[in-house]
Amino acid sequence: MNYRHEPLPLRIAEASEDRARGGFDYRQARQRADRASPCRPGDADCLGDMANAFSTRVHAGRDEWLAGHRQPATVTAATRELLRGTPHEARLDILLSQVEQWRRDFNCALYPASLLPAWDGDQDDRKAERCDPRIERREPWRVFGDPATPILPAYEGDPVQIRLIQGAQEAQHVFTMNGVKWPRVPGLGRSAARPPGQSGPGFVNAQSIGISEHFEFDVIVNPLDAPHVDYLYFGSSVDQLWDGLWGVMRSFSRPETSPAPQPLPSSASAGEARLAPQEFLATLGNPPPPRPETGDKKLAVCSPARPGAAVPYRAFDVSAVRVCDLFGDCGGPAPSGLEYSRRFGIRDERSVIYVQNGAPRHCMADNLARGCGDPARRSNAEVLQSLRHDFAEGRPLEPLVLRAAAGECLEVTLRNHLPLTLEDGPTTGEDGKPAEVPEAGAYHNFLPMITDGFNLNQFRMSSSVGLSAPRVAQHPLWADGSNIGLNGAVIDRDAGPAAWGQGSLLLPCRRQDGENCQTRFWWSATDLERGHAPVEFGGLPLRSFGDPIKHPMHGLGGALVIGPERSEVCPDDRFGAARRRPDGSAWPGGVSAEICAPGGRRYVDHVLMVQDGVNATRGGLPVGNLFGAEEPDDYGLKALNYRTEPLWARRGNDPSVGFPERNEMDYSRVLSSARLQDGGCAAGIDPSLRAPTPCDPETPVLTARAGEVVRLHFVHPGGHTRQQGLAVSGHGWNPFPWSADSRVFDAGRRTGLHQGVFNAFAPMMGISLQLDAGGAARVPMDYLIRSQASFVFDNGLWGLLRVEPPARRQGQEAR
Fold first, then answer.
1. In angstroms, rounded to a whole number, what is the distance separating the alpha carbons of residues 507 and 419?
2. Could you tell me which residue, 433 or 229, shows the higher pLDDT?
3. Which of 577, 610, 609 is nearest to 593 (CA)?
């Protein structure tokens, strides 16, 4: 990003020089932020915890030490011996000193003079410690611990234009940003005039960009009366984060409306971080944004559009939990996990998921502080006991789906049931060095090879969790489910001098019977820039930034679906009938539902969570990468809603079988659900009792009746870089199904376009497609849902839309 990067492996690892072979050896850092105290499970400031990878405060002490001390470059003895007696021998030490000088000059250009003073120009020993005054320093808003990537400064309420440019790189990228949104089509933004009846662009939070492309878009910095907020921008895939494509936009409250900024706590060695924006950042001359009406800043996003008006309010309770804990068999010989395919024995015994606890509470709140009233407080231990009872009775394992209506204030309680230490990570040998990773835990789902010997299997998955949703209005300090930049320091300053948390993440708890294992925050399905106007966002991905790499690989994701104003799941929802307890009450959530909206409108609502980087095992060993997959873009298993059906498995192979051999096989019936007279399957697979019919795929078989309106939401909480085209055979849709002001989902609007493939779908995206079940002819039959990317399709990412005949009206005779 602008000739800089900040690789996550270098944020969480410690390096030691390898004098024998050259270069460095890496391992997960074992110290706390003070660089002296050993990290213990449950500590909030561990340098090696992926939950702290984006934190400025945790890395401040280490960065200050690196900037103020020599880090001489070295070469191996073998290299010196090779150059001995050659003309290059004398140049070697000169070259090494130049490398160190370049590193020093880079730090001097990176940090302001208040952190690294300039030397006076006379004494050589001063040069070793200070900066050449001729070096330009253009980022006075930077502090120790920040990433080297650009820090974008702005004031609250400022309009900010982001200009994306990609040159000659081979790979496509997806730029995304937490806490903000922008119009999908440039030039058709919030204030652009639109002809009556014509569609608007809709809002997005992610933009794909490829070779020789550029894209400009405008965002508004949230006017939330916050002295300081850092917004994460990043390449949305695990690969691009690993490579270092991320940074922050740093916002400040307007100086004319706020008191003098207070220092922020930093690490023990780096002292306090002081930022006075009025000294380095001019205002744009715009009037200051209005202050939020509510006294509690956490609730400011839910302020009513009219003073004193009641607000539609919905409260959710969500747990992050290991699947084995839901069945009470963690640590046993065969712990429960996500079964991606029973037919082919593909599973993840280390899976972590979100689970909704009970039905959401809904009301019209005339007092936001009271919401819908305080429910009976339950400890995490009590909630987990209730969940175990549900799953013992047959509650299905499926992605979290939270449904709400445009304009609602959403209260979310998040609980962390994870242990202090999770299983997915390296162990230490008797010599104190990392032990060899056993074959059963050596996943093939690698990341880019940018650090020698340090990749996916060399760091432990974090036990801290968050719940983050794009586009909806939120206060990024408390409701982003992340630990970005200086945000944690702002929260800790307000909590007291001894406080040290992880931003809006939730740490694991030493005891699960208290209330410190849970947190509460608020989102709003509105547009703050338009006076809290309701917005029908559609399907949005939910993810955890507690571990942006491994959490999505082990299943921690979900969807938030924002439907029409005043819409609800229909009381006679036919999909809910299959999700009932033995006593007849309904389990909460569900990936499919019938939605009833004002005006008698009714439609079928389906959610598909896309997973394209799953860590899974088969026969006790990690599933290998597909033959021909030569880069991380295509590594890992693929799935929809925790289910997979690889084509290589349906042909009786494993992923290592080469294409020349596989191409000799008959694929004409590989997608067939037909059953033969002898009871076998026409596709050559074993029948499965888990599928709707024995020869169906175990991946989702979504249903609708011919002619019904169907909203199909694809969400992608996190995974690899490979962009996909998503298609539903026999169906097309309006690609811009929004009212002129982008607030209402209205597929009947004029666009002049009709699409059958949604292109460039990637992590951190959520899209909503409206279909007429059965296509234009309303034909009852099975329709293929698939990714058009060959490796992704082959590796299991497909399912079916099963369109059934229309329901017969009461009294209608069958023919």
1. 10
2. 229
3. 577
Kindly report the average pLDDT of the chain as a whole number. 90
Between vectors from CA 492 to CA 488 and to CA 496, what angle results, nearest 5°? 175
Q: By C-alpha distance, which of 248, 32, 71, 25 is closest to 148?
A: 248
Q: Residue 396 has which token pair?
A: 């299905």
Q: Which residues contact 62 (CB under 8 A, 6 or more apart)?
A: 33, 35, 47, 145, 267
Residue in 495, 464, 461, 463 with CA at minimum distance from that of residue 482: 464
pLDDT digits (tens, 9 = 90+) for 672-692: 999 999 999 999 999 998 989
648 to each of 154, 537, 613, 656, 671, how far by Cα in Å? Answer: 51, 37, 17, 9, 12
Q: What is the pLDDT of residues 369-396, one digit of tens each?
A: 889 987 778 899 999 999 999 999 999 9
pLDDT exceeds cutoff 70 at 707 = yes
- In 3D space, the residue among 37, 30, 114 whose CA is nearest the CA of residue 433 turns out to be 30
For residue 191, pLDDT beyond 80: no
pLDDT at 814 over 50: no
E strands of 266-366, at which residues?
A: 311-322, 338-341, 346-348, 352-356, 361-365
Backbone angles phi, psi at 274, to 5 degrees: -120, 125
DSSP state of 510: S
Report the amino acid identity of residue 657. Answer: V
Give the β-pairing of 182-183 and 346-348.
unpaired
Q: Copy the structure tokens of residue 286.
A: 């715009």
Distance, CA of 718 to CA of 760 (rounded, Å): 15
Q: Kind and range of the H or E element at 64?
A: helix 56-68
Question: What DSSP string runs through 390-454?
Answer: HHHTTPPP--EEEEEETT-EEEEEEEE---SS-SSS--B-TTSSBPPPPGGG--S------STT-
Can you say whether residue 239 is alpha, beta or left, with left for phi > 0 and alpha for psi between -120 and 50 degrees?
alpha
Using alpha carbons only, what angle is made at residue 746 by residues 741 and 752, rounded to the nearest 5 degrees? 90
pLDDT tier at 430 (50, 70, 90 boundaries)?
confident
Question: DSSP letters along 163-181, please?
Answer: EEEE-S-SS-EEEEETT--
Per the listing, tokens 């790979």 go with 171
Distance CA 180, CA 203 (A): 10
Question: For 111-122, what is each residue's pLDDT tens digit?
Answer: 998 888 877 554
Distance CA 630, CA 625 (A): 9
Residue 229's identity, in one-letter code, is V
